[in-house]
Design goal:
Elements (H helix, E strand, L loop, with lengths): L7 E4 L17 E4 L5 E8 L2 E6 L3 E5 L5 E6 L5 H19 L3 E4 L1 E5 L2 E6 L6 H10 L3 E4 L2 E6 L4 E5 L2 E5 L1 H6 L7 E2 L2 E7 L4 E12 L8 E4 L3 H10 L1 E2 L6 H17 L2 E6 L3 H14 L2
Parallel strand pairs: 1-6, 9-16, 16-19
Antiparallel strand pairs: 2-3, 3-4, 4-5, 5-6, 7-11, 7-18, 8-9, 8-10, 11-12, 12-16, 13-15, 14-15, 17-19
Helix pairs in contact: 4-5
Amino acid sequence: MGILPAFVLKVLAGASPPTPPGADEPGVTQWRDSNGTLGALSHASGGEHWLHVLGVASFRIPAQGNEIAAIAAAGSRPEAVSDEFQRTAWPAALQLRGHEVLHASAVATPDGVVAFCARSETGKSTLAYGLAKRGHRLWSDDAVVLSVTPTHTVASSLPFQVRLRPASAAHFGFASADLERGRLRQPGSDASAHLPLKRVCLLERAAADSEPLLATEQPPPAAALAELLQHAIYFSAHDLDRRRLMLRNYLTVLGTVPVLAVRFRPGMTYLDSVLDAVEERLL
């Protein structure tokens, strides 16, 4: 498996942020959210790798060493720069070094890690936090690092904070005064750890209350691969050799780790019952 590089953040105070390239320039990768909104741009230039989180900071990721430099955008808050370093730049740097990284929340069980992948606002953080409140170890709120071998996959955690939206925070007993920038932020973990990857759950909300509380199915391999790749964090869409390696690695994951499509009834009214079903059937 090897030891994951422990990247550190160095903020270059007083430095002028570089002008991000145009989104459609050759070699530039666009990072968009589930609504299609452009949030970041990444590219290689002069032997350096740059990740521009728009409105927050530009991060220079080294080819060697463990120091990621950040130049804050005008008006950007230090907490926002640190947040994006942890949630975005560090996972991208690990992917550049040969690891695969899933955008996922996760909990640890005695025999491995269960990862929950979903588009934004589906409820993966809420499910993982709810399971943690029941005594399960919270493994990740945003990124699960995968070290892939032909026979098994190891899941590594990164330092993280739990980030919950207002409705979820209120359900767990927090007041609006506890929110910071519209999210509840709770300590997660400040260290990495490693366990076998037990299962990947591809979450989707049920469309109606008449649907089952929790339904699972084994998707066809091609569909499962396409969905996993939708949740894969990668630095460049233009590095064909790295994209081929990523494809081989996720095919190996599919061959060694169960991947389930999980459809659940959303809403705080059903959350405790959904958590019961997740504990019984998925952990």
